[in-house]
């Protein structure tokens, strides 16, 4: 290829590039694309606002449910504490009753031994006292 042929090819390429550039910059498509991009940008802001509102609503719902669960948990804990207190009192009362019953049995048993003229030694008395105190 000679120099004149190269100049001709280079000229053709430059002409094509100029046509493409003119078409892109001044053509209707560029304006359409620019308009469409503006629309998408505006739609994106609307969508963002809707998404933010939905997230805020969901967050409020979860926060309210959490408060309700905390209140329910506090009530349940209060009930459990009251039940525990009642059971402890009941257990203490039952223990006291059982000790009184055992003490009365020991006294009766001791009186029977006494009626039989049996005098327990000091060790027997310690065993009886220990048995009474549980």
Account of the 3D structure:
By secondary structure, the protein is mostly helical. The protein has one domain. 93% of the residues lie in helices and 0% in strands. The protein contains 3 helices and no strands. Helix 1 crosses helix 2 and helix 2 runs antiparallel to helix 3. The longest helix is centred in the middle third of the chain and has 88 residues. The protein starts with a helix and ends with a helix.
Any key phrases for this structure?
mainly alpha, 93% helix, 3 helices
> Average pLDDT value?
76
Strand content: under 5%
| Residue share in helix | over 70%
* Inertia-based shape: rod-shaped
Number of H/I helices = 3
Sheet with the most strands, sense and barrel status: none
Short description:
The chain is an all-alpha fold.
Secondary structure elements and pairings:
Layout lengths: L2 H24 L1 H88 L6 H12 L1
